[in-house]
From TrEMBL:
Record-annotated membrane-spanning stretches: 6-30, 72-92, 104-122, 142-161, 405-433, 453-476, 496-514, 534-553, 565-586
One GO cellular component term noted in the UniProt record for this chain: membrane
Membrane topology note: Multi-pass membrane protein
Location within or outside the cell: Membrane
Keywords: Membrane, Transmembrane, Transmembrane helix
Compositional bias (Polar residues): 196-206, 283-292
Protein name per its UniProtKB record: Auxin efflux carrier component
Gene Ontology BP term (one): transmembrane transport
Comp. bias intervals (Basic and acidic residues): 175-195
Pfam families named in the record: Mem_trans
Region (Disordered): 175-208, 283-316
Gene name of the encoded protein: KNAG0A04930
Organism: Huiozyma naganishii (strain ATCC MYA-139 / BCRC 22969 / CBS 8797 / KCTC 17520 / NBRC 10181 / NCYC 3082 / Yp74L-3)
This protein's record includes keyword Acetylation: no
Keyword Transmembrane part of the UniProt annotation: yes
Length: 598
Protein backbone atom coordinates (compact mmCIF):
# COMPACT_ATOMS: atom_id res chain seq x y z
CA UNK A 1 0.00 0.00 0.00
CA UNK A 2 1.28 3.49 -0.83
CA UNK A 3 -0.04 6.98 -0.16
CA UNK A 4 1.23 10.44 -0.92
CA UNK A 5 2.87 12.64 1.65
CA UNK A 6 -0.08 15.03 1.62
CA UNK A 7 -2.48 12.18 2.34
CA UNK A 8 -0.24 10.94 5.14
CA UNK A 9 -0.21 14.37 6.77
CA UNK A 10 -3.99 14.61 6.54
CA UNK A 11 -4.52 11.10 7.92
CA UNK A 12 -2.15 11.88 10.80
CA UNK A 13 -3.80 15.22 11.55
CA UNK A 14 -7.47 14.22 11.27
CA UNK A 15 -7.67 12.21 14.55
CA UNK A 16 -5.84 15.03 16.36
CA UNK A 17 -8.42 17.56 15.17
CA UNK A 18 -11.20 15.33 16.45
CA UNK A 19 -9.48 14.91 19.81
CA UNK A 20 -8.90 18.63 20.18
CA UNK A 21 -12.52 19.36 19.24
CA UNK A 22 -13.78 17.10 22.04
CA UNK A 23 -11.28 18.61 24.48
CA UNK A 24 -12.50 22.09 23.48
CA UNK A 25 -16.11 21.11 24.19
CA UNK A 26 -15.05 19.93 27.65
CA UNK A 27 -13.17 23.20 28.09
CA UNK A 28 -16.34 25.18 27.33
CA UNK A 29 -18.50 23.02 29.59
CA UNK A 30 -16.21 23.81 32.51
CA UNK A 31 -15.58 27.43 31.53
CA UNK A 32 -19.28 28.24 31.55
CA UNK A 33 -19.88 26.17 34.69
CA UNK A 34 -22.18 23.74 32.90
CA UNK A 35 -20.16 20.91 34.44
CA UNK A 36 -18.92 22.03 37.84
CA UNK A 37 -16.15 20.41 39.83
CA UNK A 38 -18.47 18.23 41.89
CA UNK A 39 -20.11 16.85 38.75
CA UNK A 40 -16.75 16.36 37.03
CA UNK A 41 -15.44 14.43 40.02
CA UNK A 42 -18.48 12.16 39.94
CA UNK A 43 -18.04 11.51 36.23
CA UNK A 44 -14.35 10.82 36.78
CA UNK A 45 -15.18 8.25 39.46
CA UNK A 46 -17.69 6.63 37.11
CA UNK A 47 -15.13 6.42 34.31
CA UNK A 48 -12.39 5.00 36.53
CA UNK A 49 -14.56 2.51 38.40
CA UNK A 50 -17.00 1.31 35.72
CA UNK A 51 -16.40 2.47 32.16
CA UNK A 52 -12.62 2.06 31.89
CA UNK A 53 -12.62 -1.49 33.38
CA UNK A 54 -15.28 -2.49 30.85
CA UNK A 55 -13.24 -1.06 27.98
CA UNK A 56 -10.01 -2.78 29.01
CA UNK A 57 -11.71 -6.13 29.65
CA UNK A 58 -13.56 -6.03 26.34
CA UNK A 59 -10.60 -5.06 24.16
CA UNK A 60 -8.13 -7.43 25.81
CA UNK A 61 -10.40 -10.49 25.75
CA UNK A 62 -11.55 -9.81 22.20
CA UNK A 63 -8.19 -9.04 20.61
CA UNK A 64 -5.47 -10.70 22.72
CA UNK A 65 -4.67 -14.41 22.84
CA UNK A 66 -1.87 -16.63 24.04
CA UNK A 67 -0.17 -16.05 20.68
CA UNK A 68 0.44 -12.45 21.83
CA UNK A 69 2.39 -13.33 24.95
CA UNK A 70 5.61 -12.12 23.35
CA UNK A 71 4.04 -8.75 22.46
CA UNK A 72 2.70 -8.39 26.00
CA UNK A 73 6.17 -8.98 27.43
CA UNK A 74 7.72 -6.51 24.98
CA UNK A 75 5.08 -3.89 25.86
CA UNK A 76 5.80 -4.24 29.58
CA UNK A 77 9.55 -4.00 28.94
CA UNK A 78 9.04 -0.96 26.70
CA UNK A 79 6.87 0.71 29.33
CA UNK A 80 9.60 0.32 31.95
CA UNK A 81 12.13 1.76 29.52
CA UNK A 82 9.78 4.65 28.70
CA UNK A 83 9.39 5.49 32.39
CA UNK A 84 13.15 5.34 32.90
CA UNK A 85 13.94 7.59 29.95
CA UNK A 86 11.33 10.09 31.12
CA UNK A 87 12.82 10.16 34.60
CA UNK A 88 16.28 10.74 33.14
CA UNK A 89 14.94 13.68 31.14
CA UNK A 90 13.43 15.14 34.32
CA UNK A 91 16.77 14.88 36.12
CA UNK A 92 18.53 16.62 33.23
CA UNK A 93 15.91 19.37 33.33
CA UNK A 94 16.50 19.82 37.05
CA UNK A 95 20.27 20.02 36.61
CA UNK A 96 20.19 22.51 33.73
CA UNK A 97 17.29 24.83 34.56
CA UNK A 98 16.02 26.58 37.74
CA UNK A 99 13.35 24.15 38.90
CA UNK A 100 11.77 25.16 42.25
CA UNK A 101 12.97 23.06 45.14
CA UNK A 102 9.40 22.27 46.19
CA UNK A 103 8.50 20.91 42.73
CA UNK A 104 11.40 18.53 42.12
CA UNK A 105 9.33 15.38 42.65
CA UNK A 106 6.48 16.79 40.62
CA UNK A 107 8.93 17.21 37.75
CA UNK A 108 10.12 13.63 38.20
CA UNK A 109 6.53 12.34 38.11
CA UNK A 110 5.70 14.34 34.97
CA UNK A 111 8.72 12.80 33.26
CA UNK A 112 8.01 9.23 34.32
CA UNK A 113 4.34 8.85 33.46
CA UNK A 114 2.84 9.86 30.09
CA UNK A 115 -0.86 10.08 29.24
CA UNK A 116 -1.46 6.43 28.29
CA UNK A 117 -5.23 6.36 28.29
CA UNK A 118 -7.68 8.62 26.46
CA UNK A 119 -5.34 10.17 23.88
CA UNK A 120 -3.75 7.05 22.31
CA UNK A 121 -7.03 5.10 22.48
CA UNK A 122 -8.92 7.93 20.78
CA UNK A 123 -6.24 8.18 18.12
CA UNK A 124 -6.23 4.45 17.40
CA UNK A 125 -10.02 4.23 17.23
CA UNK A 126 -9.91 6.90 14.52
CA UNK A 127 -7.41 4.93 12.42
CA UNK A 128 -9.59 1.90 11.70
CA UNK A 129 -11.17 3.26 8.53
CA UNK A 130 -9.04 1.23 6.17
CA UNK A 131 -6.78 4.03 4.96
CA UNK A 132 -3.86 2.71 7.02
CA UNK A 133 -5.24 0.09 9.40
CA UNK A 134 -8.32 -2.08 9.33
CA UNK A 135 -10.86 -1.98 12.11
CA UNK A 136 -9.54 -5.29 13.44
CA UNK A 137 -6.00 -3.88 13.57
CA UNK A 138 -7.22 -0.71 15.31
CA UNK A 139 -9.04 -2.76 17.96
CA UNK A 140 -5.91 -4.82 18.54
CA UNK A 141 -3.96 -1.58 18.91
CA UNK A 142 -6.40 -0.43 21.59
CA UNK A 143 -5.82 -3.73 23.40
CA UNK A 144 -2.05 -3.15 23.30
CA UNK A 145 -2.63 0.35 24.68
CA UNK A 146 -4.64 -1.18 27.53
CA UNK A 147 -1.60 -3.34 28.36
CA UNK A 148 0.51 -0.16 28.49
CA UNK A 149 -2.13 1.44 30.71
CA UNK A 150 -2.22 -1.58 33.00
CA UNK A 151 1.56 -1.46 33.38
CA UNK A 152 1.45 2.22 34.26
CA UNK A 153 -1.35 1.66 36.75
CA UNK A 154 0.67 -1.20 38.25
CA UNK A 155 3.63 1.10 38.94
CA UNK A 156 1.55 4.11 39.90
CA UNK A 157 -0.95 2.48 42.26
CA UNK A 158 0.33 -0.96 43.32
CA UNK A 159 3.88 0.26 43.90
CA UNK A 160 2.53 3.53 45.28
CA UNK A 161 4.61 5.72 42.97
CA UNK A 162 1.81 8.30 42.87
CA UNK A 163 2.91 9.26 46.38
CA UNK A 164 6.18 10.76 45.14
CA UNK A 165 4.14 13.87 44.28
CA UNK A 166 3.61 14.33 48.02
CA UNK A 167 7.34 14.56 48.70
CA UNK A 168 7.20 18.15 47.48
CA UNK A 169 4.83 18.97 50.34
CA UNK A 170 6.80 17.52 53.26
CA UNK A 171 8.31 20.93 54.05
CA UNK A 172 5.05 22.83 53.61
CA UNK A 173 4.32 24.51 56.92
CA UNK A 174 0.82 24.20 58.34
CA UNK A 175 -1.32 27.34 58.41
CA UNK A 176 -0.34 29.96 60.93
CA UNK A 177 -1.59 29.34 64.42
CA UNK A 178 -3.57 32.54 64.35
CA UNK A 179 -5.26 31.61 61.09
CA UNK A 180 -5.97 28.12 62.37
CA UNK A 181 -7.52 29.51 65.53
CA UNK A 182 -9.69 31.86 63.52
CA UNK A 183 -10.80 29.06 61.25
CA UNK A 184 -11.56 26.81 64.19
CA UNK A 185 -13.41 29.55 66.03
CA UNK A 186 -15.39 30.31 62.90
CA UNK A 187 -16.61 26.73 62.76
CA UNK A 188 -17.52 26.76 66.47
CA UNK A 189 -19.16 30.18 66.26
CA UNK A 190 -17.17 31.76 69.10
CA UNK A 191 -14.71 34.09 67.34
CA UNK A 192 -14.51 37.71 68.22
CA UNK A 193 -15.19 40.38 65.67
CA UNK A 194 -12.87 43.31 65.07
CA UNK A 195 -14.78 45.47 67.51
CA UNK A 196 -14.56 42.89 70.29
CA UNK A 197 -18.06 41.50 69.97
CA UNK A 198 -18.83 37.85 69.71
CA UNK A 199 -19.19 36.53 66.15
CA UNK A 200 -21.88 34.18 67.37
CA UNK A 201 -23.82 37.17 68.57
CA UNK A 202 -23.40 38.69 65.14
CA UNK A 203 -24.79 35.54 63.60
CA UNK A 204 -27.73 35.63 65.97
CA UNK A 205 -28.27 39.26 65.03
CA UNK A 206 -28.42 38.48 61.35
CA UNK A 207 -30.49 35.34 61.69
CA UNK A 208 -33.76 37.08 62.69
CA UNK A 209 -33.33 39.39 59.71
CA UNK A 210 -32.88 36.38 57.47
CA UNK A 211 -35.96 34.78 59.01
CA UNK A 212 -37.94 37.87 58.21
CA UNK A 213 -36.64 37.87 54.67
CA UNK A 214 -37.56 34.20 54.26
CA UNK A 215 -41.07 34.94 55.45
CA UNK A 216 -41.23 37.73 52.90
CA UNK A 217 -40.01 35.37 50.20
CA UNK A 218 -42.55 32.68 51.09
CA UNK A 219 -45.31 35.29 51.03
CA UNK A 220 -44.11 36.46 47.63
CA UNK A 221 -44.12 32.95 46.23
CA UNK A 222 -47.59 32.21 47.63
CA UNK A 223 -49.07 35.42 46.31
CA UNK A 224 -47.24 35.31 42.97
CA UNK A 225 -45.62 38.70 43.56
CA UNK A 226 -42.21 39.58 42.28
CA UNK A 227 -39.27 38.46 44.34
CA UNK A 228 -36.68 40.71 42.76
CA UNK A 229 -36.74 43.07 45.73
CA UNK A 230 -35.21 40.38 47.88
CA UNK A 231 -31.93 40.61 45.98
CA UNK A 232 -30.92 43.83 47.66
CA UNK A 233 -31.77 42.44 51.07
CA UNK A 234 -29.65 39.36 50.47
CA UNK A 235 -26.69 41.46 49.44
CA UNK A 236 -27.06 43.65 52.52
CA UNK A 237 -26.39 40.57 54.66
CA UNK A 238 -23.58 39.40 52.41
CA UNK A 239 -20.79 39.46 54.95
CA UNK A 240 -20.06 39.34 58.66
CA UNK A 241 -16.35 39.73 58.99
CA UNK A 242 -15.05 36.74 57.04
CA UNK A 243 -18.48 35.10 56.98
CA UNK A 244 -20.93 35.33 54.10
CA UNK A 245 -24.48 34.37 54.92
CA UNK A 246 -27.55 33.92 52.80
CA UNK A 247 -30.60 31.69 53.16
CA UNK A 248 -30.63 28.30 51.56
CA UNK A 249 -34.16 28.88 50.40
CA UNK A 250 -33.10 31.89 48.42
CA UNK A 251 -30.01 30.35 46.85
CA UNK A 252 -31.70 27.10 45.92
CA UNK A 253 -35.25 28.14 45.17
CA UNK A 254 -35.46 31.58 43.58
CA UNK A 255 -35.25 31.14 39.84
CA UNK A 256 -37.27 31.32 36.66
CA UNK A 257 -39.17 34.28 35.32
CA UNK A 258 -40.34 37.14 37.49
CA UNK A 259 -42.58 35.94 40.27
CA UNK A 260 -41.80 32.24 39.73
CA UNK A 261 -39.65 29.67 41.57
CA UNK A 262 -38.15 26.53 40.11
CA UNK A 263 -37.97 24.65 43.35
CA UNK A 264 -40.37 23.95 46.16
CA UNK A 265 -40.48 25.92 49.31
CA UNK A 266 -38.35 25.24 52.34
CA UNK A 267 -38.06 21.77 53.76
CA UNK A 268 -39.40 20.69 57.11
CA UNK A 269 -35.97 20.80 58.70
CA UNK A 270 -35.43 24.46 57.86
CA UNK A 271 -38.99 25.51 58.66
CA UNK A 272 -38.79 24.03 62.14
CA UNK A 273 -35.26 24.96 63.10
CA UNK A 274 -35.09 28.28 61.34
CA UNK A 275 -33.35 29.13 58.12
CA UNK A 276 -30.08 27.40 57.33
CA UNK A 277 -27.06 29.54 56.65
CA UNK A 278 -24.13 28.95 54.36
CA UNK A 279 -21.06 29.94 56.36
CA UNK A 280 -18.24 30.60 53.92
CA UNK A 281 -14.76 30.18 55.35
CA UNK A 282 -11.51 31.29 53.80
CA UNK A 283 -10.96 27.93 52.11
CA UNK A 284 -11.73 28.18 48.40
CA UNK A 285 -14.54 26.08 47.04
CA UNK A 286 -15.79 24.96 50.46
CA UNK A 287 -18.88 26.01 52.34
CA UNK A 288 -19.98 25.10 55.81
CA UNK A 289 -23.68 24.73 56.50
CA UNK A 290 -24.96 25.85 59.87
CA UNK A 291 -28.56 25.09 60.67
CA UNK A 292 -30.70 26.63 63.30
CA UNK A 293 -30.51 23.43 65.32
CA UNK A 294 -27.59 21.74 67.03
CA UNK A 295 -26.17 19.95 64.02
CA UNK A 296 -22.44 20.31 63.42
CA UNK A 297 -21.10 22.15 60.41
CA UNK A 298 -20.39 20.03 57.37
CA UNK A 299 -18.34 20.76 54.27
CA UNK A 300 -20.35 21.09 51.09
CA UNK A 301 -19.43 22.13 47.58
CA UNK A 302 -20.24 25.69 46.74
CA UNK A 303 -23.72 26.24 45.34
CA UNK A 304 -24.06 29.32 43.20
CA UNK A 305 -27.16 31.40 43.92
CA UNK A 306 -29.59 32.01 41.14
CA UNK A 307 -30.26 35.47 39.88
CA UNK A 308 -33.67 37.03 39.63
CA UNK A 309 -33.58 36.64 35.85
CA UNK A 310 -33.68 32.88 36.17
CA UNK A 311 -30.05 32.35 35.11
CA UNK A 312 -27.42 31.09 37.46
CA UNK A 313 -24.50 33.40 38.12
CA UNK A 314 -21.60 31.92 36.18
CA UNK A 315 -18.88 30.66 38.49
CA UNK A 316 -15.48 31.12 36.88
CA UNK A 317 -13.63 27.79 37.04
CA UNK A 318 -10.31 27.85 38.84
CA UNK A 319 -7.66 25.54 40.15
CA UNK A 320 -9.09 26.16 43.63
CA UNK A 321 -12.10 24.09 42.58
CA UNK A 322 -9.89 21.04 42.14
CA UNK A 323 -8.02 21.72 45.35
CA UNK A 324 -11.29 22.09 47.23
CA UNK A 325 -12.60 18.82 45.77
CA UNK A 326 -9.51 16.66 46.25
CA UNK A 327 -7.36 18.17 48.99
CA UNK A 328 -6.84 16.05 52.12
CA UNK A 329 -3.79 17.95 53.35
CA UNK A 330 -5.40 18.53 56.74
CA UNK A 331 -6.10 14.80 57.18
CA UNK A 332 -2.53 13.95 56.26
CA UNK A 333 -1.12 16.57 58.64
CA UNK A 334 -3.25 15.40 61.57
CA UNK A 335 -2.61 11.71 60.91
CA UNK A 336 -6.24 10.94 60.12
CA UNK A 337 -5.15 9.63 56.72
CA UNK A 338 -2.26 7.14 56.60
CA UNK A 339 -0.71 7.07 53.12
CA UNK A 340 1.29 3.95 53.94
CA UNK A 341 -2.02 2.08 53.83
CA UNK A 342 -4.26 1.65 50.77
CA UNK A 343 -6.92 4.26 50.12
CA UNK A 344 -10.57 3.59 49.35
CA UNK A 345 -11.01 1.63 46.14
CA UNK A 346 -14.19 3.22 44.80
CA UNK A 347 -12.73 6.66 44.04
CA UNK A 348 -10.14 7.81 41.55
CA UNK A 349 -8.22 9.18 44.55
CA UNK A 350 -9.48 7.92 47.89
CA UNK A 351 -9.94 10.25 50.85
CA UNK A 352 -9.82 7.56 53.55
CA UNK A 353 -7.99 4.33 54.27
CA UNK A 354 -9.17 0.81 53.61
CA UNK A 355 -7.88 -2.59 54.66
CA UNK A 356 -8.58 -6.28 54.14
CA UNK A 357 -11.52 -7.31 56.27
CA UNK A 358 -11.94 -3.86 57.76
CA UNK A 359 -15.32 -3.23 59.40
CA UNK A 360 -16.46 0.01 60.96
CA UNK A 361 -19.13 0.05 63.66
CA UNK A 362 -21.36 2.91 62.64
CA UNK A 363 -24.52 1.89 64.51
CA UNK A 364 -24.89 1.22 68.21
CA UNK A 365 -27.90 1.00 70.44
CA UNK A 366 -29.24 4.15 72.04
CA UNK A 367 -31.78 4.99 74.68
CA UNK A 368 -34.38 5.66 72.02
CA UNK A 369 -34.12 2.14 70.55
CA UNK A 370 -36.92 -0.17 71.53
CA UNK A 371 -38.20 -3.64 70.69
CA UNK A 372 -37.01 -5.24 67.47
CA UNK A 373 -34.82 -2.27 66.56
CA UNK A 374 -32.93 -2.59 69.88
CA UNK A 375 -32.39 -6.33 69.34
CA UNK A 376 -31.31 -5.66 65.74
CA UNK A 377 -28.72 -3.16 66.93
CA UNK A 378 -27.44 -5.55 69.60
CA UNK A 379 -27.03 -8.31 66.97
CA UNK A 380 -25.25 -5.99 64.56
CA UNK A 381 -22.95 -4.73 67.27
CA UNK A 382 -22.04 -8.26 68.41
CA UNK A 383 -21.32 -9.38 64.84
CA UNK A 384 -19.23 -6.29 64.19
CA UNK A 385 -17.22 -6.82 67.39
CA UNK A 386 -16.49 -10.42 66.39
CA UNK A 387 -15.45 -9.38 62.90
CA UNK A 388 -13.34 -6.56 64.29
CA UNK A 389 -11.58 -8.98 66.65
CA UNK A 390 -10.68 -11.22 63.71
CA UNK A 391 -9.53 -8.19 61.80
CA UNK A 392 -7.36 -7.20 64.76
CA UNK A 393 -5.63 -10.60 64.79
CA UNK A 394 -5.00 -10.32 61.06
CA UNK A 395 -3.53 -6.85 61.49
CA UNK A 396 -1.26 -8.05 64.28
CA UNK A 397 -0.03 -10.85 62.01
CA UNK A 398 0.69 -8.31 59.26
CA UNK A 399 2.60 -6.02 61.61
CA UNK A 400 4.51 -8.88 63.19
CA UNK A 401 5.94 -10.07 59.90
CA UNK A 402 6.13 -6.58 58.35
CA UNK A 403 3.82 -7.45 55.46
CA UNK A 404 2.17 -4.04 55.13
CA UNK A 405 3.77 -3.60 51.70
CA UNK A 406 2.22 -6.86 50.50
CA UNK A 407 -1.24 -5.83 51.72
CA UNK A 408 -0.86 -2.48 49.96
CA UNK A 409 0.19 -4.27 46.79
CA UNK A 410 -2.66 -6.80 46.84
CA UNK A 411 -5.46 -4.43 47.77
CA UNK A 412 -4.63 -2.12 44.88
CA UNK A 413 -5.13 -5.06 42.51
CA UNK A 414 -8.78 -5.00 43.59
CA UNK A 415 -9.23 -1.52 42.18
CA UNK A 416 -11.77 -1.77 39.35
CA UNK A 417 -9.37 -0.31 36.77
CA UNK A 418 -6.65 -2.82 37.63
CA UNK A 419 -9.09 -5.69 38.11
CA UNK A 420 -10.69 -5.22 34.70
CA UNK A 421 -7.35 -5.43 32.91
CA UNK A 422 -6.10 -8.31 35.09
CA UNK A 423 -9.22 -10.40 34.52
CA UNK A 424 -9.07 -9.60 30.83
CA UNK A 425 -5.48 -10.81 30.54
CA UNK A 426 -6.24 -14.02 32.45
CA UNK A 427 -9.30 -14.80 30.32
CA UNK A 428 -7.51 -13.92 27.08
CA UNK A 429 -4.44 -16.10 27.74
CA UNK A 430 -6.41 -19.25 28.65
CA UNK A 431 -7.84 -20.57 25.35
CA UNK A 432 -10.75 -22.49 26.90
CA UNK A 433 -11.81 -19.50 28.99
CA UNK A 434 -11.47 -17.12 26.06
CA UNK A 435 -13.67 -19.42 23.96
CA UNK A 436 -16.51 -18.85 26.43
CA UNK A 437 -16.55 -15.15 25.49
CA UNK A 438 -15.60 -15.04 21.78
CA UNK A 439 -15.40 -17.56 18.98
CA UNK A 440 -11.95 -19.17 18.68
CA UNK A 441 -10.43 -22.37 17.35
CA UNK A 442 -11.25 -24.06 20.67
CA UNK A 443 -14.50 -26.00 20.55
CA UNK A 444 -17.01 -25.21 23.29
CA UNK A 445 -20.76 -25.57 23.37
CA UNK A 446 -22.54 -22.55 21.93
CA UNK A 447 -25.62 -20.74 23.05
CA UNK A 448 -28.84 -21.14 21.01
CA UNK A 449 -27.93 -18.08 18.93
CA UNK A 450 -24.65 -19.67 17.84
CA UNK A 451 -22.53 -17.38 20.00
CA UNK A 452 -20.38 -18.37 23.01
CA UNK A 453 -22.32 -18.65 26.23
CA UNK A 454 -20.69 -15.61 27.86
CA UNK A 455 -20.69 -13.47 24.73
CA UNK A 456 -23.33 -11.23 26.29
CA UNK A 457 -20.61 -9.99 28.69
CA UNK A 458 -18.55 -8.87 25.70
CA UNK A 459 -21.59 -7.00 24.35
CA UNK A 460 -22.22 -5.50 27.78
CA UNK A 461 -18.65 -4.33 28.38
CA UNK A 462 -18.29 -3.09 24.81
CA UNK A 463 -21.48 -1.05 25.04
CA UNK A 464 -20.38 0.65 28.27
CA UNK A 465 -16.73 0.94 27.29
CA UNK A 466 -17.57 2.99 24.20
CA UNK A 467 -18.29 5.95 26.49
CA UNK A 468 -14.81 5.92 28.03
CA UNK A 469 -12.87 7.96 25.49
CA UNK A 470 -15.43 10.77 24.89
CA UNK A 471 -15.98 11.26 28.61
CA UNK A 472 -12.26 11.11 29.30
CA UNK A 473 -11.50 13.77 26.70
CA UNK A 474 -14.32 16.00 27.98
CA UNK A 475 -12.91 15.71 31.50
CA UNK A 476 -9.47 16.54 30.14
CA UNK A 477 -10.85 19.71 28.59
CA UNK A 478 -12.51 20.65 31.86
CA UNK A 479 -9.27 20.07 33.73
CA UNK A 480 -7.36 22.32 31.34
CA UNK A 481 -10.05 25.00 31.76
CA UNK A 482 -9.46 25.08 35.52
CA UNK A 483 -5.69 25.48 35.32
CA UNK A 484 -4.42 28.82 36.55
CA UNK A 485 -1.06 30.43 37.17
CA UNK A 486 -1.12 32.85 40.10
CA UNK A 487 2.65 33.24 40.39
CA UNK A 488 5.60 31.73 38.60
CA UNK A 489 9.03 31.03 40.14
CA UNK A 490 11.83 32.96 38.42
CA UNK A 491 13.16 31.16 35.37
CA UNK A 492 10.67 28.31 35.55
CA UNK A 493 9.42 28.95 32.02
CA UNK A 494 12.76 27.59 30.78
CA UNK A 495 12.25 24.43 32.82
CA UNK A 496 8.76 23.93 31.39
CA UNK A 497 9.96 24.51 27.82
CA UNK A 498 12.88 22.10 28.19
CA UNK A 499 10.65 19.42 29.74
CA UNK A 500 8.19 19.88 26.86
CA UNK A 501 11.02 19.44 24.34
CA UNK A 502 12.09 16.26 26.10
CA UNK A 503 8.55 14.90 26.47
CA UNK A 504 7.21 15.64 22.98
CA UNK A 505 10.33 15.71 20.80
CA UNK A 506 13.28 13.83 22.26
CA UNK A 507 11.42 10.89 23.82
CA UNK A 508 9.42 10.21 20.60
CA UNK A 509 12.71 10.02 18.66
CA UNK A 510 13.98 7.45 21.16
CA UNK A 511 10.66 5.62 20.81
CA UNK A 512 10.92 5.46 17.04
CA UNK A 513 14.45 4.03 17.24
CA UNK A 514 13.39 1.54 19.92
CA UNK A 515 10.32 0.36 17.98
CA UNK A 516 12.33 0.04 14.77
CA UNK A 517 14.89 -2.12 16.56
CA UNK A 518 12.22 -4.35 18.10
CA UNK A 519 10.58 -4.78 14.70
CA UNK A 520 13.87 -5.70 13.02
CA UNK A 521 14.66 -8.42 15.57
CA UNK A 522 11.08 -9.77 15.33
CA UNK A 523 10.13 -8.89 18.87
CA UNK A 524 7.22 -7.00 17.34
CA UNK A 525 5.43 -9.00 14.66
CA UNK A 526 2.79 -6.60 13.36
CA UNK A 527 2.53 -3.08 12.01
CA UNK A 528 -0.06 -2.09 14.59
CA UNK A 529 2.13 -3.14 17.53
CA UNK A 530 4.94 -1.02 16.13
CA UNK A 531 2.63 1.93 15.60
CA UNK A 532 1.24 1.69 19.15
CA UNK A 533 4.79 1.61 20.50
CA UNK A 534 5.74 4.83 18.72
CA UNK A 535 2.43 6.54 19.50
CA UNK A 536 2.75 5.82 23.23
CA UNK A 537 6.24 7.33 23.36
CA UNK A 538 4.88 10.55 21.80
CA UNK A 539 2.27 11.28 24.48
CA UNK A 540 2.38 14.27 26.90
CA UNK A 541 2.58 13.96 30.68
CA UNK A 542 -0.20 12.19 32.56
CA UNK A 543 -3.04 14.52 33.55
CA UNK A 544 -3.65 12.37 36.62
CA UNK A 545 -0.79 14.31 38.20
CA UNK A 546 -3.08 17.32 38.49
CA UNK A 547 -5.40 15.40 40.81
CA UNK A 548 -2.54 13.88 42.79
CA UNK A 549 -1.09 17.36 43.30
CA UNK A 550 -4.46 18.76 44.36
CA UNK A 551 -4.72 15.82 46.77
CA UNK A 552 -1.66 17.07 48.69
CA UNK A 553 -2.15 20.83 48.26
CA UNK A 554 -3.26 22.71 51.41
CA UNK A 555 -6.39 24.80 51.05
CA UNK A 556 -4.63 27.98 52.13
CA UNK A 557 -1.31 29.50 51.19
CA UNK A 558 0.67 29.50 47.98
CA UNK A 559 0.07 26.79 45.40
CA UNK A 560 3.48 26.72 43.78
CA UNK A 561 3.19 23.09 42.72
CA UNK A 562 -0.12 23.66 40.95
CA UNK A 563 1.23 26.79 39.27
CA UNK A 564 4.24 24.91 37.88
CA UNK A 565 2.09 22.02 36.74
CA UNK A 566 -0.38 24.37 35.06
CA UNK A 567 2.37 26.03 33.03
CA UNK A 568 3.79 22.66 31.98
CA UNK A 569 0.45 21.30 30.76
CA UNK A 570 -0.55 24.50 28.99
CA UNK A 571 2.71 24.44 27.01
CA UNK A 572 2.54 20.71 26.26
CA UNK A 573 -1.02 20.71 24.97
CA UNK A 574 -0.37 23.89 22.97
CA UNK A 575 2.23 22.12 20.82
CA UNK A 576 1.01 18.51 21.00
CA UNK A 577 -0.96 18.66 17.76
CA UNK A 578 2.21 19.74 15.92
CA UNK A 579 4.63 17.23 17.43
CA UNK A 580 2.21 14.31 17.24
CA UNK A 581 1.46 15.03 13.58
CA UNK A 582 5.17 14.96 12.76
CA UNK A 583 5.72 11.70 14.64
CA UNK A 584 2.78 9.90 13.03
CA UNK A 585 3.61 11.16 9.53
CA UNK A 586 7.19 9.97 9.93
CA UNK A 587 5.82 6.70 11.23
CA UNK A 588 3.79 6.25 8.05
CA UNK A 589 6.70 7.17 5.79
CA UNK A 590 9.75 5.52 7.27
CA UNK A 591 8.53 2.88 9.70
CA UNK A 592 5.34 1.46 8.23
CA UNK A 593 6.62 1.93 4.67
CA UNK A 594 3.22 3.08 3.55
CA UNK A 595 4.32 5.97 1.38
CA UNK A 596 5.56 6.03 -2.13
CA UNK A 597 8.67 7.95 -3.02
CA UNK A 598 7.73 11.43 -4.20
Amino acid sequence: MSITIGAAIYIALKPILKIYAIIFVGFLLAKYDIVNMETAKGISNMVVNAILPCLTFNKIVTNISWHDIKEIGVIILSAVLLFSVGMACSVVTKLTTPVPKNWFWGLIFSGIFPNISDLPIAYLQSMGNGAIFSQEEADKGVAYTCIFLFTQSFFMMNFGMWRIVGLDFKDVAPPKEKDSEQHSDLEMGDTKSSDGTDAQDNTRTVKPNLEAMNKKYRHSVDSGNEVSSIDSEVMSYNSIGNVSAFPVQYSDSIAGNRGQALRSRTTDSTSEAGPALFMVNSSPGVLQTESGGDSAPVDKPFSVPRSRGGLRHRHAPSVNDMIGAYSVAHKIRTGELDLSRPLTLTEDIGASNTAIGEVSISETSSDSDTGDQYRHNITRTSTAVTTTASHGRFQRFIRRYKLEWLVYFIINFIRPASLGALLGIICALIPWVKACFVSTYVHVHKAPDGQPVLNFLIDFTGYIGNACVPLGLLLLGGTLARLQVSSLPPGFIRSALLMTVFRLMVIPIVGVAWADKLYNINWLDSRISKFVMILTWAMPSATAQIYFTAFYTPMNGKHTQMDCLSVLFIIQYSVLFITLSFVVTYDFKEVLKCMSQT
